[in-house]
Amino acid sequence: MALLTYATKRVGQTLPVALFVTVLIFLLIKLLPGDPASTILGDRASDAAVRALHQQWGLDRPLWQQYTTYMHNLATGNLGQSLRYRTPVVDLLPRRMGVTLFLVIYSMLLSVMIAVPLAIIAAANRDRWPDQLVRGLITLPLASPPFWIGILLLIVFALRLRWFPAAGYGEGFVGHLRYLFLPALTLSNAFTAVLTRNLRSSLIDVQQTTFVDFARAKGLTYRDVQVRHVLRAALLPIVTLIGVRLSYAIGGSVIIETVFALPGLGSWMVDSIMARDYMVVQTLTLTFAIGAMLINLATDLVYPLLDPRVRMG
Question: Which of 110, 149, 170, 251 would bridge with 175, disulfide CB 3.0–4.6 Å?
Fold first, then answer.
């Protein structure tokens, strides 16, 4: 019951923020230079034609009426029409979103698969050479921009060694794994370093607590102590970190998808901004914002499952 109350409270706190985000994005799009009607009709369009399209789309109405129409369209799944492709945005969105979601989740899994073993090795060998080696390895990604790492991986593994494709999304699940390996590895670099450093520190702190000493005194094996007590307790602050970095990964996909020519939301956003495709830019901005909010909400809902004290607070 306490968990249900906690979840209801968190969802209730998220809804006003989501509403505020829609207002903010609606107003920011209105501040962009250029006129949607002139863009779609071309430079040779007459003033009468531009005014007629303004009236048809409701652009000549007060802002509050335009916002009301915008929210009504959102509620009915009408995201407008792409000025560039002359196609409803809602028809173009699913495939592009699938590419970005696959890339982000793939990068997160790679980060966890790389960071957890490295952090355990570093914490178990504190201040010895394995710890120093791990801390040295994770410094390089933190000091290097993602696009530079992506170009470096492209040159070495795609152009020289030809182990992975240089661009594209591939066909089928296995094809997606192969084609997106280099982009996902690039996107995961910085988070792997941060996750390794934080998990190492958390593991060292938990290993020095009294309940871990008690577990050792009971005669539990080293593996049981590490997995059932140390690692579980150390994961608590890491869940929050994963949520924050997952939100960052969605935004970071804009650069990575451009470098690797992936047909995802990030590259679509860049193309739409260059083409002044207002409806697409507005929809993608809202999608990124809502996606980040849902990730934060999911993080908050997972947190009490790991630590019951949270939902009792």
Answer: 170
| pLDDT per residue as tens digits for the range 184-212 | 888 888 788 888 888 888 888 888 888 77
How many angstroms separate the CA atoms of 208 and 91, rounded? 55
pLDDT digits (tens, 9 = 90+) for 44-54: 777 777 777 77
In the chain, which residue ranges form alpha helices assigned H by DSSP? Answer: 2-31, 36-41, 47-57, 63-75, 89-124, 129-137, 139-142, 146-153, 172-179, 181-207, 210-217, 222-224, 232-259, 265-274, 278-306, 309-312
CB 233 within 8 A of CB 210: no
Sign of CA dihedral 62, 66, 67, 72: positive
pLDDT of residue 33: 66
| CB-based contact 211:230 (threshold 8 Å) | no
Confidence category of residue 295, pLDDT binned at 50, 70, 90: confident
Reported pTM: 0.78
Q: 263 Cβ partners below 8 Å, 6+ apart? A: 95, 96, 99, 169, 257
